[in-house]
Design goal:
The complex is a heterodimer of chains A (501) and B (336). Chain A has 501 residues and is α/β, with parallel strands linked by helices. Chain A is built from 18 helices and 20 strands. In chain A, the strands form 4 sheets. Chain A has a 6-stranded mixed β-sheet with strand order 6-7-8-3-9-10, sandwiched between helices. The two termini of chain A are 46 Å apart. Chain B has a single domain, classed as Orthogonal Bundle (ABC transporter involved in vitamin B12 uptake, BtuC), CATH 1.10.3470. Chain B has 14 helices and 4 strands. With 336 residues, chain B is an all-alpha fold. Classes of the chains: A alpha/beta (501), B mainly alpha (336).
């Protein structure tokens, strides 16, 4: 009997975000369905809804044709739905067999665990998978690839496994390891399981998937045949056509001034020495893979991480930032990458979020706040960044992600900075708000600010930057001028020394 | 009937809902205990409740700030006992009362610095770090006086507990004035705003240019000083510094603060709730004594009250989250 899993009009809200918007798709046993989409397209929310980590706000979830409501991953696993995540979900101190049968170890009638039988059963699965590992080995002694295999075997060992999902499974695997993973995925498929494969590596999807479901901004776009649809078509569907026009229509700053910021050999615990300059009115892009050290450069500059050496010059004068407060006083401000955990103050309203960095300037000698001054700043912020909020007393988490981000920008622009560092400013916000941000960034450059733009989205960084620094392995791997910037060039630089860990 | 309804609406618009519940709860508590013991409903008893609440109130000021900032403090009971013994000892050694009081307040500063040092520098959770202080300072209190209460004969010292102003004892006035001042600071100043900010999200607050470690230090110092002040006032009322006094003081103060609407998750609450919570809990504790609840059962009742406070904190939190989700849904729908 072929299994199937189907979503009908699934919608999922989080405070400030509509993570899934009326998503429907269907996957049947005996085929591999790939989920394709950019960061923030909703893939991980989908997986978490599939395995019961999240519950859909509305819509239907059908497993083998009948509706299910999983309240926890445990319930989903019991019903035969397993997700293999990027982060290992296994217990390092236990053996392979103990992990495979975790929570249902064979036991005799006194509850005494029969380890020998567990090992025997594990050995059988291991040989089915054709792996050279022993049931008794502790998982921490295995390579990452084999640890992942243990997770797959754990899911596989359940008789009722119906659906198995892989979340970027090849992220830390070598080519040979990918081969053996794909062999196992093929085996699962041939046994009639539903296999869902999440990745944004196009070549892998072409290789392993039968069908591709494409998602964009939390919406389901379409499903295509993986083998007959060509890559550029898939990319077009995934990215959407509208962004190309957005970049072309930007009113970019054309007059770049003299040197504003110079960083010389700056390093911290998290980044190797970096040197670069930023000019007035310039948008300087920082590209590179996640974890290449871009955020860490920003944090070292503003003093969020302790700088262990190197110099920073602002307008030719050497400055030291021992804390973000110092940096702000010097005129360097940073809009952090993770809005939720580092940007917004979720317990406070829009007004207090915007004015939080102006407390010193808005209070008198004994620290009493001047509410008139605050109101004025808030009004200006809401107007100039067109923040959509019914009033300034709304809790910031009630706004959409894009509007929350605008509040953070308004917070910093109120301090009249000279250098604005934006770290993934458009992550997880919808296309409309993205284009507003792009216009805003160009406007800032025109006003003479130096803008440092950290972004993982290549079209974004190419479309906005005057100059791009590419980081790899906590170093600056190269510099590309706007005219010469292509996605291939940036990727090639980002991958340099990539294998050196 | 219609008229009564209108009145209710007007009252509700004047007083925020969560405070109204506290006032109603206070009325119910007073009504119940008054019906059980006729002496409960009297001016003398109300003044007694306020006097007994004055130490809890001082400590609750510190707890309001600390818990809003996402911290906590389990040491005030011991520290109040220690500072009471210290002040009494210094005076009995011949030091003028004013000087002795200053030294005692300074010891409160030291306690605060020590607590914040553990929290900021050794990164110990405040709950556990201040447990250290609770034990150490209980020990110091006994060591200082060799386990025997230090009696007070100095008239200036004794007048703190004895003086009345407008027929209300000075200790009550001290609590009320300080609650008013610290309430204004919390609501109206940049320091107060910073406390809410670091309680909401410490990392984000630091990136926004605040200095969470410095704020936490100041908060523990405030707690140390108000507790030391409480210790002085209490010893004056008791006519002696007692090393065994004030056990579970922090328990009552934390219960009061949480009853008053300060959330254990940080970032939420205010001083108006705290004063209502303080009066409510003391009205409750005094009532238990006056209706002769056996003292062992009083423990159970007070534990139940804390559980009630925490449960309502949880319900408020869930309600807030639900409301936020609904509101953001609306915001998103109107955006698209």
């Amino acid at each position: 009997m072929a299994h199937s899993v189907e979503f009908k009009n699934i919608t999922k809200y989080f405070p400030g975000v509509k993570a899934l918007d009326d998503v429907s798709f269907c996957a049947s046993g005996g085929e591999v369905l790939a989920f394709l989409g950019e960061n923030g397209a909703g893939k991980s929310t989908l997986l978490k809804t599939l395995n019961g980590d999240y519950q859909a706000t509305s819509g239907e979830y059908l497993l083998d044709g009948s509706p299910v409501h999983f309240r926890s991953p445990h319930e989903a696993i019991e019903a035969g739905v397993s997700v293999i995540y990027q982060e290992r979900q296994i217990l390092m101190e236990l053996s392979v067999a103990e992990n495979i049968f975790l929570g249902r170890m064979p036991a005799n009638k006194f509850g005494w665990i029969d380890i020998r039988q567990a090992n025997k059963a594990a050995a059988k699965i291991i040989s089915e998978f054709g792996l050279p590992i022993k049931p008794q080995t502790k998982v921490k002694d295995l390579s990452i690839a084999y640890q992942q295999m243990v997770e797959i075997m754990k899911a596989y060992s359940r008789d009722n496994l119906k659906v198995i999902c892989f979340d970027e499974p090849t992220a830390s695997l070598s080519d040979a390891e990918i081969d053996s993973l794909f062999a196992i995925i093929a085996k699962l498929r041939d046994e009639g399981k539903v296999v869902i494969y999440v990745s944004h590596r196009m070549s892998e999807i072409k290789r392993i998937a039968d069908k591709v479901a494409i998602f964009k901004d939390g919406r389901y776009v379409t499903t295509k045949d993986a083998r007959t649809t060509d890559e550029s078509e898939l990319i077009r569907l995934m990215v959407g056509r509208d962004l190309g026009d957005i970049y072309d229509n930007l009113d970019r700053n054309k007059t770049i001034g003299d040197e504003l910021l110079r960083v010389e050999g700056l390093f911290s615990d998290y980044v190797e020495p970096v040197s670069f300059t930023l000019r007035r009115g310039e948008v300087l892009g920082f590209s590179g893979l996640v974890g290449a050290g871009r955020t860490e450069v920003a944090r070292a500059i503003i003093g969020a991480d302790k700088a262990l050496g190197g110099k920073i010059f602002l307008e030719g004068r050497e400055i030291t930032n021992r804390s973000p407060h110092d940096a702000m006083m010097n005129g360097i401000v940073y809009v952090p990458e993770d809005r939720k955990t580092q940007g917004i103050l979720a317990n406070l309203d829009v007004s207090k979020n915007i004015t939080i960095s102006m407390l010193d300037r808005n209070s008198n000698a004994i620290g009493v706040l001047d509410t008139k001054k605050e109101e004025k700043i808030v009004e200006d912020g809401i107007r100039s960044f067109s923040i959509k909020t019914p009033n300034a007393e709304k809790k910031i988490v009630e706004l959409s992600g894009g509007n929350q981000q605008k509040c953070i920008v308004a917070r910093w622009m109120a301090t009249q900075p000279k250098v604005l560092i934006l770290d993934e400013p458009t992550k997880g916000i919808d296309v409309g708000a993205k284009s507003e941000f792009y216009h805003m960034i160009c406007q800032f450059a025109k006003q003479g600010l130096g803008v440092i733009l950290i972004s993982s989205e290549l079209p974004e960084i190419i479309g906005l930057s005057d100059r791009i620094l590419v980081m790899s392995n906590q170093r600056i791997a190269g510099e590309v001028m706007r005219e010469d910037a292509t996605e291939e060039r940036l990727l090639a630089l980002a991958m340099t020394e990539g294998g050196k860990n | 009937m219609e008229k009564g309804k209108n009145m209710w609406v007007r009252v509700k618009s004047l007083i925020p809902g969560d405070k109204l519940i506290l006032i109603v709860a206070l009325i119910i508590v007073v009504a119940i205990f008054s019906s059980l013991n006729g002496n409960y409903f009297s001016w003398t008893n109300f003044v007694n409740i306020l006097v007994a609440a004055s130490l809890i109130g001082l400590v609750a000021i510190g707890h309001t700030y600390l818990i809003i900032a996402g911290q906590n403090d389990l040491s005030p009971g011991s520290v109040a006992a220690f500072t009471g013994v210290l002040c009494a000892t210094l005076v009995s050694m011949g030091l003028p009362f004013v000087l002795a009081a200053l030294v005692t307040l300074l010891s409160g500063v030291v306690v605060g610095l020590f607590n914040s040092w553990m929290v900021n520098k050794i990164k110990i959770e405040a709950f556990i770090a201040t447990l250290v202080t609770q034990f150490v300072f209980r020990g110091f209190a006994y060591i200082l006086c060799d386990g025997r209460p230090v009696s007070i004969t100095d008239s200036a010292y004794l007048s703190i507990g004895a003086t009345r102003f407008l027929s209300i004892p000075l200790s009550v006035w001290i609590m009320l004035v300080l609650i008013l001042i610290f309430g204004l600071v919390l609501a109206k100043t940049k320091f107060g705003r910073s406390v809410y900010a670091i309680g909401g999200n410490k990392d984000a607050a630091r990136l926004a240019g605040l200095n969470p470690q410095r704020i936490v230090t100041i908060l523990f110092v405030i707690m140390g000083v108000v507790t030391a002040l409480g210790g002085i006032v209490f010893s004056s009322r008791m006519h002696s510094g007692q090393p065994a006094a004030n056990v579970n003081l922090e328990f009552d103060a934390i219960t009061a603060v949480v009853l008053g609407g300060v959330s254990f998750t940080g970032g939420v609450g205010d001083m108006v709730g705290t004063i209502l919570g303080v009066i409510l809990i003391q009205a409750f504790n005094t009532g238990l004594i006056m209706v002769n609840v056996p003292s062992f059962w009083q423990y159970v009742a007070r534990g139940a009250l804390l559980l009630f406070a925490l449960t309502s904190d949880y319900i408020r939190k869930t309600k807030r989250e639900k409301a936020l989700l609904e509101a953001s849904k609306k915001a998103l729908a109107s955006n698209n």
